[in-house]
User: Fold this.
Amino acid sequence: MNTALIRIEIDGQALDVPNGISVAAAIARAQRPFRRSVSGQVRAPFCGMGICFECRVRIDGIAQQRACMATVREGMQVMTDD
Ligand code: FES
Assistant:
């Protein structure tokens, strides 16, 4: 893994994160919350391998992306409450 830092945005906040980490790791590293369920419960990554869909976020305008399966890219825009 290339450990150089790249810049992404999470919920509009610019963050420098190590290149090659997952979006879920970047969100956790930034200590940002994940989405809430329709009943208001806080959700967060559970399986970490693309099965549970608990880590869904919007990435570059595309909804329902699994944060645990996506790798950060320079300039990526992530919205967690989606
Ligand atoms: S944590 Fe289960 S799909 Fe991402």
In short: The chain has a mean pLDDT of 94. Strands lie at 5-10, 13-18, 56-59, 62-66, 77-79. Residues 23-29 form the longest helix (7 residues). Residues 45-48, 50-55, 66, 68 surround FE2/S2 (inorganic) cluster (CB under 6 Å).
